[in-house]
From TrEMBL:
Pfam families: ASC (PF00858). Belongs to the amiloride-sensitive sodium channel (TC 1.A.6) family. The lineage of its organism: Eukaryota, Metazoa, Ecdysozoa, Nematoda, Chromadorea. GO terms for cellular component: membrane. Gene3D superfamilies: YojJ-like (1.10.287.770). This is Uncharacterized protein. Keywords: Glycoprotein, Ion channel, Ion transport, Membrane, Sodium, Sodium channel, Sodium transport, Transmembrane, Transmembrane helix, Transport. It comes from the Eukaryota. It is found in: Membrane. One of its GO terms (molecular function) is sodium channel activity.
Length: 53
């Protein structure tokens, strides 16, 4: 038997599973800097080559 000023809250969950996301670097910092420097060197070389022509 419930009273007029009585509130009932029912919380139901299907399961207590949760998703875990993790991030990690694929490249290390020295590898990234080397790749960036190589790309910049290639673009700079092509730019200078196009200026000479």
């Amino acid at each position: 038997m419930f009273h007029r000023d009585f509130t009932t809250i029912n919380l139901n969950w299907g399961s207590f599973e949760y998703l875990t996301l993790s991030q990690y670097w694929v490249w290390s910092m020295p590898t990234f800097i080397a790749a960036l420097g190589g790309s910049m060197g290639a673009w700079l070389g092509l730019s200078i080559l196009s200026l000479i022509q």
